[in-house]
Input
Amino acid sequence: MEQTIEAVHDLDMLHVTEYDGSWDGFEPGNSLDGTNEVADKLVTVRSLQSILGVSDEDAGPTRVVTDDAIEDQLETVRTEVNELDDRRDEVRDELRAVEDRINTMAPFVTLGIDLDLLRGYDSLSVVVGEGDSDEIEAVLADSDVETFELFTEDGVVAVFAQADGDALQDALVGATFSRLEIPEGDGDPTAYLEELEHEKQQLESKLSTVEDELNELRLDHAGFLLAAEEKLAIEAQKGEAPLTFATTENAFIAEGWIPNDRFEAFERALSGAVGDTVDIDRIEIAEYDSEGHAESHEEVEREGGNGGEPVGSSVDAPEPESERQPQETVADGGVITMGDDAPPVIQDNPKGVKPFEDLVEVVNRPKYGEFDPTVAFFLTFPAFFGFMIGDVGYGLLYLALGYGLYSAVDSDVLKSLGGVGMWAGGFTMLFGLLYGEIFGLHTISNVVWPALGFEGAPFHKGLQPAYGEYAIGWLTLSLLAGMLHLAVGWTFDFIENLNHGLWDAVTESGSWLLMLFGLWAWVFSGAAGSAPDFLYTAEEGIFAGNPFPLGFAGLPAIDLFSVGGFPISAWLLVFFAGLVLLALADPIEVVEFLNVFVNVLSYTRLAAVLLAKAGMAFVVNLLFFGVFVTDDGAWHFGISHAPSYYLEEGVYHGHEVTEVMFGGLMHSGIAGLVGGLLVLVLGHLLVLVLGITSAGLQGVRLEYVEFFGKFFEGGGKRYNPFGYERTYTTDD
Output
């Protein structure tokens, strides 16, 4: 067993399946001898690393670590570190106590009365606290305390009274008074405070010395501790391996998954290391669907002629086929597995797409045989985000923030978020160029595009009255994007369901596609005046109601007959055909038939966020630069001159200036300029942050809720082969 474990561990190929105890005559194995001692040492090493603050940067060169070195050096390091750590804890406790006494002493320094004068009287009671002296005096005057005197300084009050201590305390209940404990010590509180400050400095010096000594130990032993942890972790991993095996008195069975293209290398290496005492049995080469059922399989001849129906599954990537190693074969020719038939999954996405895998895993890891939505996520989410923000300036900042996160942190998840941020920033810049905006200003539209021979930016966000038709255009295109996105999701589901048969695919997935296209083709055919005009107008020009000159004459209505005066379109029949197919597949799902309508409407949030963020950026710039309006309905920022200047001039680029919307803080004096700069910077930072929380979250919601829900279930396990990738140690 130990030879086999060593060989399999070195190969780092086999994803081991844990035995579930279901076989008669087989029991789960026991840890190898010495595993508990190894685990104890591993706990010790990790504790020492935590105390010393050891990090990967402290590793140094790789090294060979022997058992004798761990046995001898670990005990020495443990003794030194624990002694220093105990000393550090003691000094810290003393330092905290002194700091508490210093904080307690501060009010008494303010009061300025010697500490020995605040205690030790036979006939006087003394209380010290913080409160309103006038209120305290009034309360005492109305109480049973006949003789008292107050000493006060900056809200600290000392009350001397010829009364019982409890009676004095009861009398002060009605006043705003917070009692303070009189500290130990005699004489001037200022001198006593100086002694405490000096004691604090001494303790801080001691603490610094201890921490310096611990730091020296870290520098001396960090490489050893990291290497020892790795060696012990490997030994613990090997020692606990039999817990996953099925064992008898004289034999054991290990089962697991391995990529098919690596089987021959696995078999050759393991046989060479262990010899004929281990039987390596390949049961089946197969492909599996998302439910874990075999789509196709190739039975493998096994010694002894055992046939039967193989059972098992496969690793997803890098090859679509894989095998299970080895399995228990029974007399009747069947195969009994260890209980967990779900194959592990390797996601094999291109490097640029990798950051999006973590966002997919927020929902779940794909199951084997299931479409991995990572690439689709990569193709759509940055585009959605960029469309909603669409600004070169914000895009540059998102790109820089993403790069900073990707390059500066060690966490794989944060690195992935940084990668997603870079992609989102790039698409934000791309759409910003198309909209001609940088931080909400139209500089690119007014300067860059004309310099390239164009009249202005190709598109507009639709916030200004002059370009109002674009707002309707973006809303409509958001619907079209939603239709396409959902259609792709249901198409993925259709392909997956083909594994169960064409009829299942048509009724369970094709039904939704028919309903989707039938309903929205009816909408866009102009039924009841529902279609947007710009889709059906070949004329160019914004004021013709056509921001996008598609030259599209629209879908025909194809009305077949009327029911109660309501025309029934052929498109509606397509919708109802899909509804019937859905009812044949699962009548319960019929109650959700309106999903084809409301899910598509959900994508209008793309245009809504686009207009909202454009409006916020516009308001920030309006407050700083000011805005004037021309007779063509366009708004212009007062960047080079105050808006009032253009109103006096009367004409701007051939158009009459009709009004000043706001004069702008920039043009209202020094105080206005300073306040305006604050508004400008904080305002754009707010838009930047809200871009993440609105555009980012809305885009993710469309992916998770609308898109993934059509085909993605998840629940896969990561392919985690039995082995260890060495970082700090070497066998050479």
